[in-house]
Amino acid sequence: MSQHSEKFNEAFKYHKEGNLSKACDLYMEILKTDPNNAQVWDLLGVVHFQQNDFLEGEVCIKKAIMLEPRVYYLENLAKLYLEKGDFLQSISLYEDIIKINNSYENLFNLAMAYKNAHQWENAKLTYQKALEVNPNGYESYYNLAYLAFFDNEPQKAIECYKKVLEIKPDDWETTYFLGLAYMQVKDYKNGLEAFESRLCKKSAILSQEKLYPKLMRDKPEWKGEDLKDKILFTYYEAGFGDLLMFYRYIPILTSMCKKLIIKPQKELLPLFRENSYGAEIIENYDYQKPIYFDYHLPFLSIPHVLKLDSEKVFVHHDDGYIKPNPEKVQIYKDKYCQNDSFKIGIKWQGNTHYDLERVLQVEDFFQLFEIPNTKFYSFQTLEGSEEITRIKQKYDIVNLGETFSDFSDTAGAMENMDLIISNDSSLIHLAGAMGKRSFVLLPYVYNWRWHVDLSKCDWYDSVTIFRQNEFGNWKNVFDEVKNKIIEIKE
C-alpha cells in the first residue's frame, strides 16, 4: 500500500469516527501533493459542512465537481445547501439529481427543501414519490402529517402518524403528535391517551424526584384510585397557558380528595392562591417545608385520569373560574383606567422557544390604534417588551406590562379592560379563564387546542378566534379585528 493510500485510509477512519479536525488536517496534507484528487476535495468539503463551515464546504465540493462531475458530489452539495438553509439552490440541484438517481434519500431531501421553501404541494408530491421507492420511509409519512395541518386536515395527519407507528411502533415523538392531532379533531379519548407520551411529563416527574426523592419513589402516580381519604400532589409542566387552561379541573379534584396540593410556577403562585378552591398552593422550591402525599400527578395528566373525553373535557364555568384580586383591580382602575374610552389590552409575543409563527409585529396593531375613542394598553412582558418603544414613537399607549410581577397583577389590570387582543399566548388563557371578552390571533398553522371549527372557541366562551388566511400574512386578521372592534363599540 502506498504512503498516499495509507494517509487517505487514516483520514477516512478519523472522519468515520467523528474526529473531524484530525481528518481535515490529513485531507489537506494529501491535497498538497495531490491537488487534483476530486474524492479528497469532496470529503474535505463534507468535513467543513459537518463543522457548519458551509462556505468552505461549498468551495471544496465545487472543486471536486469541477475536477470530476460525479452525482455523489452533487448530492453532497445539494445536502449542504439544504442544511445551510439555501433551499432554492438545494431544490435546483436535487431536481437535476433525481433525473439520474431518484433514490429515496434524494427524493426525501428534495421534499424537505420544498417544504422549507414553503412549496407545500411540491413537497407533498415528492414525499409520496419517495414512499413509492421506499414504502417504509417513516420520515416521509411524518412530514406528510405535518403538511396535512397546512390544509387544516388533521384527520389526514392522524392517518400519516399511524403509518409511522406501524413502521416504528415505539416512537414516542410520533405518538405525542398523534395525540395532538386527535385532540384537534376533538377525539380526546385517544388524544389524551397518546398525549401521555409527552416529554414534558417525564421532565416534570424527574424534577420532582430531585426535590422529593423518597416520596416520589414510594408514592405512586395517580391512575384514578379513590381519593376520599387521600392527599394528591399535582405539579406544573409546560407553559403558563397550559396550567391556566387546565386549572378548570381544580374544583373537581378538590371535591374528590382529602387534600389537594398544587405546585405551580412562581409567576402563577399568587393568582392560584387567590383562586385555590381549598387546595394548598405551595412554593416551587421550598426545600425547608415538609410535604406529604399519597399520590402524585403531573398537571396536564388531570383530564386523562379523570377520563374526560368528548365535550366533557371542556368543563365550562359560566362566569369564569379565575377571579382577580379586588384590591389590585381597584389599584389599576384608579391609576391607569380613569377614562371613558374603550379599553383594549394587547400582547404580540409569547415564548419564542416554540412557534415563531405566533409572533405578531407591533406595526400590525397600528391600524387598530386609529379607531376613535379607544385606549390601548400593552400587556407585553419579558421577551418582546422592548417593542413598546416603536409604538410610542407614533401612538399614546399605556405600558402596563412593566408593572406586572406575576399573573395576579395581570388579572387585576385585565379586569379593567373592555377587550383583550393577543397572539396565542398565556394572556388569552387568563382572559378566557376570567371570562373576559378577548380575541386570539392565530397563524395559518395553529395549535391543536383551537380545533378544526374556528367559528367558536370550545375552551372559553368569551374568546373569539381569528386566523390567517394564508401563511405569514396577518393583514386579513387585523382587517377582521378592526371591523369587529368597530361593530362592538357601536
Helix/strand layout:
Elements: H1 3-17, H2 20-33, H3 38-50, H4 54-67, H5 71-84, H6 87-100, H7 104-116, H8 120-133, H9 138-148, H10 154-167, H11 172-184, H12 188-195, H13 199-211, H14 213-218, E1 231-235, H15 240-246, H16 250-256, E2 259-263, H17 269-274, E3 280-281, E4 295-298, H18 302-305, H19 326-336, E5 342-347, H20 366-369, E6 374-378, H21 388-392, E7 398-399, H22 407-414, E8 419-423, H23 426-434, E9 438-442, E10 463-467, H24 475-489
Parallel strand pairs: 1-2, 1-4, 2-3, 5-6, 5-8, 6-7, 8-9, 9-10
The number of helices is: 24
CATH architecture of the largest domain: Alpha Horseshoe
- Overall structural class, as computed from helix and strand content, comes to alpha/beta
Number of strands: 10
Short description:
The chain has 24 helices and ten strands.
Provide an overview of this structure:
With 490 residues, the protein is α/β, with parallel strands linked by helices. The chain has three domains: 3-195, Tetratricopeptide repeat domain (Serine Threonine Protein Phosphatase 5, Tetratricopeptide repeat), CATH 1.25.40; 201-314, Rossmann fold, CATH 3.40.50; 326-489, Glycogen Phosphorylase B (Rossmann fold). It contains 24 helices and ten strands. It has helices at residues 3-17, 20-33, 38-50, 54-67, 71-84, 87-100, 104-116, 120-133, 138-148, 154-167, 172-184, 188-195, 199-211, 213-218, 240-246, 250-256, 269-274, 302-305, 326-336, 366-369, 388-392, 407-414, 426-434, 475-489, and strands at residues 231-235, 259-263, 280-281, 295-298, 342-347, 374-378, 398-399, 419-423, 438-442, 463-467. Strands 7-6-5-8-9-10 form a six-stranded parallel beta sheet, with helices on both faces. A four-stranded parallel beta sheet has the order 3-2-1-4. Helix 21 (388-392) links the parallel strand 6 and strand 7. Helix 3 runs antiparallel to helix 4, helix 7 (104-116) packs antiparallel against helix 8 (120-133) and helix 8 packs antiparallel against helix 9 (138-148). The model has no long low-confidence stretch (mean pLDDT 94).
